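R.M. (postdoc): so does anyone remember the format we settled on? I'll just put the structure tokens first.
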């Protein structure tokens, strides 16, 4: 259920820090999304293609849909007509497919490059070298807007802080080559305050706003 009190508290905190909020609404109903929408929320994050493409037509058109997390290349076509920002481009194959589908839809799709910063094996993303070496000019219908990363799911706050600082440093480096890549998306319900202190300017928060899934 949408927790208005928590939402208002978080948005105050984020406004003061000039950090953008993506409200992660995966597995949440259109009614719950509308409750947040009525409080002024416009950026929502989803990470299941089928769920997103069935919810999107039922909800207001001015919602900016962020696809967060791992996206399979063969599913890009379903979200390409309307997605606002694909957070989590983690392979060149995916980048190529997004470019192709963007062209088909006669649009430019905004993307973030996902960087692997966690010590865990399971998190997706490019290494630093890979991400710096891609020739983004090959994908003119993709607009690279910044970087995204996920820290280890860990109680060890020093580890999480270190991983976020690594990503922040990579973002500075990336921006020197790609000046328009302003976004640094890092931080979720459990670690967003640590992420903001490390320099995040976009957080993806689900359970704190909508309750557990
Ligand atoms: C689910 C998810 C989130 C939000 O997680 P919460 O812990 O509920 O805030 C953020 N980012 C990604 C990539 C996710 O899959």
């Amino acid at each position: 259920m949408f927790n208005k009190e928590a939402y208002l508290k978080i948005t105050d905190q984020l406004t003061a820090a000039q950090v953008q909020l993506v409200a992660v609404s995966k597995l949440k109903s259109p009614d719950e999304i509308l409750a947040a929408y009525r409080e002024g929320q416009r950026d929502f994050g989803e990470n299941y293609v089928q769920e997103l493409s069935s919810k999107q037509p039922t909800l207001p058109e001015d919602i900016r849909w962020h696809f967060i997390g791992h996206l399979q290349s063969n599913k890009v076509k379903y979200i390409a007509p309307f997605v606002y920002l694909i957070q989590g481009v983690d392979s060149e194959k995916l980048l190529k497919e997004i470019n192709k589908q963007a062209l088909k839809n006669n649009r430019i799709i905004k993307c973030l490059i996902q960087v692997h910063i966690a010590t865990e094996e399971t998190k997706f993303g490019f290494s630093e070298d890979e991400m710096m070496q891609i020739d983004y000019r090959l994908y003119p219908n993709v607009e690279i807007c910044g970087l995204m990363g996920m820290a280890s799911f860990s109680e060890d706050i020093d580890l999480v802080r270190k991983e976020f600082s690594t990503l922040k440093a990579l973002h500075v480096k990336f921006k020197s080559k790609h000046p328009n890549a302003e976004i640094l998306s890092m931080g979720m319900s459990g670690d967003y305050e640590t992420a903001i202190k490390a320099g995040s300017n976009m957080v993806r928060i689900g359970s704190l706003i909508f309750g557990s899934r």
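R.M.: ...and that's the designed sequence above, right after the tokens. Also worth knowing: Strands lie at 20-24, 43-46, 64-68, 85-89, 109-115, 142-149, 183-185, 202-205. Residues 24, 26, 47, 68-69, 188-190, 204-207 surround pyridoxal-5'-phosphate (CB under 6 Å).
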